[in-house]
Amino acid sequence: MNIFWLLMMLSSIFVMLITNPGGVLSEMISASTDALKLCVELCAIYAVWLGIMELVDASGLSEKLAKLLRPLIRFIFRVDDPQIQKVIALNMSANILGLGNAATPMGIRAMQALDDKSGKANFAVIMLIVVNATSIQLLPTTIIGLRSSAGSQNPADIIIPTLVVTCLTTCLGILFVHMIDKVTHKMRAKK
Q1: pLDDT tens digits for 77-119?
Q2: For the chain, domain boundaries
Q3: Residues 6 or more apart whose Cβ sits within 8 Å of residue 13
Q4: How far is it, in rounded angstroms, from Cα 143 to Cα 156?
Q5: Model-level pTM?
Q6: How many other CB atoms are found less than 10 A from the CB of residue 76?
Q7: Is 120 exposed, middle or buried (0-12, 13-18, 19+ CB in 10 A)?
Q8: How far is CA 31 from the centre of its chain?
Q9: How many other C-beta atoms are found inside a 10 Å radius of the C-beta of residue 128?
Q10: Among candidates 19, 16, 40, which has minimal Cα distance to 28?
Q11: Is the separation of the CB atoms in 125 and 108 below 8 Å?
């Protein structure tokens, strides 16, 4: 992946050298400044939400959330271990709040807990990947932060469309994983 980004950057610089040689250095400095500014703004947003997630965990609210989501997690992921359910619940709640990067450590912990050491992705791991990729977004905080830093007049205007689309994609993703699992089990049974 690093090679891809390097090639993309070098080709952009090459094209700019041909089209606007005098602007290469100023554009590179401007882009670096914008990238650093965006990182600082997003860092502030994540600091707040990671702090809130830490308070949620320390207050025991995460345990209550895990208990509330336990039937849903048990049905979707087919997992009975309460510790794994708790980590999945925290991962899902961080994603629901639009904290994709904050959800990553919990997602990694859940993935490690779900790994059966077979070297292949099992049903629960595949479902976790799909749920994370399609995640329902009640508060798309990262996108709101990006829109705000880009100067949007109403950065939160995307909440309802995002909620509708992410609900639809998550439901379809879960449905497709269950359907594909049934088909593969039938194919294995025929062999």
Answers
A1: 988 888 888 888 888 877 777 666 667 888 888 889 888 888 8
A2: 24-190
A3: 24, 28
A4: 9
A5: 0.69
A6: 20
A7: exposed
A8: 25
A9: 26
A10: 16
A11: no
